[in-house]
Amino acid sequence: MLKMASSFPEEVLEHVFSFLQSDGDRNSISMVCKSWYEIERWCRRRIFVGNCYAVSPRILIRRFPDVRSITLKGKPHFADFNLVPEGWGGYVYPWIVALASAYPWLEEIRLKRMVVTDESLELIAKSFKNFKLLVLSSCEGFSTDGLASIAANCRNLQELDLHESDVEDLSGRWLSHFPDTYTSLVSLNIACLGSEVSFSALERLVGRCPNLRSLRLHRAVPLDRLSNLLHRAPQLVELGTGAYSAELRPDVLSNLSSALSACRELKSLSGFWDVVPTYLPAVYSICPGLTSLNLSYAIIQSPDLIKLVSQCPNLQRLWVLDYIEDVGLDALAVSCKDLRELRVFPSDPFVLEANVSLTEQGLISVSEGCPKLQSVLYFCRQMSNEALITIARNQPNFTCFRLCIIEPRTPDYLTLEPLDVGFGAIVEHCKDLTRLSVSGLLTDRAFEYIGTYGKKLEMLSLAFAGDSDLGLHHVLSGCDNLRKLEIRDCPFGDKALLANAAKLETMRSLWMSSCSVSYGACKLLGQKLPRLNVEVIDERGHPASRPESLPVEKLYIYRSVAGPRFDMPNFVWTMDENSALRLT
Amino acid sequence: MAKEGLGLEITELRLGLPSGPRSVDKIKEKKRVFSEINGGDGNGANSGDRDDYRKSQAKSQVVGWPPVCSYRRKVYSLNETSKMYVKVSMDGAPFLRKIDLGMHNGYADLALALEKLFGCFGIGEVLKDADSCEFAPIYEDKDGDWMLAGDVPWEMFLESCKRLRIMKRSDAKGFGVLESKGFLKATMKDEPK
């Protein structure tokens, strides 16, 4: 075997390897033999690091000498819901420093939930001569000054995407830092910004970039400015409008309509803040070509929503507020037979009483009418086992099913029973389910179903569910492909965790907050499993100052080859052999 | 892996319904569960007053629930809240500032904003170590009384706050026991609007 492997010239193997892009495949090839490992590591160009603390920059650079594209993820997912205290970590600066010296030809950086400073952005701007792509998804810690550095220095920049980041918006002047000679923009997403930018600068930028395909504006760009921009970029494929309002003038509607209808490539629409419904008909001409529509910030009532979606027969993705109501989802099920992904967000999430007529019926309709539906995120206020069983039978192709019944521990509204059987039907019928979020009243029985049937499940989110450790045990022992488990406010304690400790090394991470895991158990896990970082997060002070049997506030466990990190704030402690010695 | 202290019952799969009237209790308490969640699970005592206020408001006060991401919540609050600018004075600072309370999700967010306005004077430190901060945030309410920030739910604070003052703790001697843990507690249990 060894002889055969070495009889192929390296160049041939490299060429063969170049057809394999997925990390899984690349990892597999690298384990065939030493020479393949060597060849593969020299020619891997794209790196995905799902947890920035699982590996160190040094280890990465040592193995892969010539990387062109890197993705880093920082904080755990529950940080999106304010469950990870400020200052926890996820700082990208040390990574940028290391990458800057090791990979001068780096072209792409994608970051998610990381703390990015202006210093980091400046370093990026100055270090990589061929820098092409910067995606900052749900990041924070930087200001528009950092963006100015990027704009001014990255001559070959193609994509700048600030997706939902928390940017300190000092002014809109940063946009004017793109030099007049800069023409390579392909994609710009500044939807999360607040300050006005110079409209003339924006128009000139858009006008001189012939390859611009995706433009997502922010709220400060009013509708009457949009036409001018569209005239300069009729080749757009993706458009995020700014504020969808303007003073009611007859020319605004007609200008917008003609500008939009000239955009024959347009497939995706988003934005729609502050919608004035009178202007909605402007998009009708492009509706037939739309595959993606994000109305999740749009306050539009169901009659207007129905008029819109009824004209989008090629729609594959719809994000919308629950103003669409059951009647709107019925219309969606009739009109949009190609629908793959549906997200229905709550318009008034903090009120217990329903403000719209959106129930389980809407989800039943789409599961019945849309044969290609694979991914669902649905916020509602009532659910029944019967509905869930029907949905599961209608649509066994779900790969992602996230149901959020707004009030915790809500039972089946018809029978008042737990929703165990309903979710059981979902996991049983949907054999390809990889992501699941459950809600409502659930006993350990629900987790028994999940453990029994959820064999392909990779990510599971639990809240206010279960009765005992048995629930957690079912999940940890049954879900063979589990990578990410996040739990809040469930009565899970030490037993299941300790009994399934080895399982944790096969997963990327486990998050548990407001559960019943004791400090003693955390210490034990940290001592016994050196390849895990067991982080205790507790803002009440060091847990050693309280009895060991008391539960910790929050627990974040992740596998790592980098060992414990050193950038923790004073409310986070890593449990290891020395944890007993290391106090605040 | 050590299994000390574990009974074999952990591996016993039982298929019956969970014993006890728990599910029935949960249904009876359905209306109150939402507002009481914060008071349970050993996460620190919360005042009964706050629970009563919550029930009357029928609004969620649970941190991070429903799971709407903070970016989206910010957009919701931009949609709903009108501008609520109040003056902020800080002992020792030569001039006052103005801050839009409606732009903030809760006490934690406000603390960070105040820190940014006046530099790192340790407002945020109150979050970590109540005794280390030499400043205390107080506000003037509708009745003209000066109150310590953090005792009441965020929405109530928004309605009653007329102006803010960041006071030197040493000036508080005349105020009796300054229970700054109120701010600390509130910032931990904050619920963004």
Automatic annotation (TrEMBL), chain A:
Key words, A-Z: Auxin signaling pathway, Developmental protein, Nucleus, Ubl conjugation pathway
Pfam family, one: LRR_At5g56370
Annotated pathway: Protein modification; protein ubiquitination
Residues annotated as domain F-box: 8-49
MF terms (GO), sorted A to Z: auxin binding
Keyword Glycosyltransferase: no
Origin: domain of life: Eukaryota
GO terms, biological process: auxin-activated signaling pathway; pollen maturation; SCF-dependent proteasomal ubiquitin-dependent protein catabolic process
InterPro entries named in the record: COI1_F-box, F-box-like_dom_sf, F-box_dom, Leu-rich_rpt_Cys-con_subtyp, LRR_dom_sf, LRR_FXL15/At3g58940/PEG3-like, Transp_inhibit
SUPFAM superfamilies for the chain: F-box domain, RNI-like
CDD domains, sorted: F-box_AtTIR1-like
GO cellular component, as recorded: nucleus; SCF ubiquitin ligase complex
Subcellular localization(s) per the UniProt record: Nucleus
Gene3D superfamilies named among the record's database cross-references: 1.20.1280.50, Ribonuclease Inhibitor (3.80.10.10)
Keyword Nucleus: yes
PANTHER family with a match to the protein in the record: F-BOX/TPR REPEAT PROTEIN POF3, TRANSPORT INHIBITOR RESPONSE 1
Protein name: F-box domain-containing protein
Automatic annotation (TrEMBL), chain B:
UniProt-recorded name of the protein: Auxin-responsive protein
Residue stretches making up the PB1 domain: 83-171
Compartment(s) of residence: Nucleus
Cellular compartments per GO CC: nucleus
Keywords: Auxin signaling pathway, Nucleus, Repressor, Transcription, Transcription regulation
GO biological process, one term: regulation of DNA-templated transcription
Transmembrane spans: none
Pfam families: AUX_IAA
Superkingdom assignment: Eukaryota
Listed PANTHER family: AUXIN-RESPONSIVE PROTEIN IAA17, AUXIN-RESPONSIVE PROTEIN IAA5
General function of this protein: Aux/IAA proteins are short-lived transcriptional factors that function as repressors of early auxin response genes at low auxin concentrations. Repression is thought to result from the interaction with auxin response factors (ARFs), proteins that bind to the auxin-responsive promoter element (AuxRE). Formation of heterodimers with ARF proteins may alter their ability to modulate early auxin response genes expression.
InterPro entries in the record: AUX/IAA_dom (IPR033389), AUX_IAA (IPR003311), PB1-like (IPR053793)
Record family assignment: Belongs to the Aux/IAA family.
Organism the protein comes from: Rubus argutus (Southern blackberry)
Oligomer status and interactors: Homodimers and heterodimers.
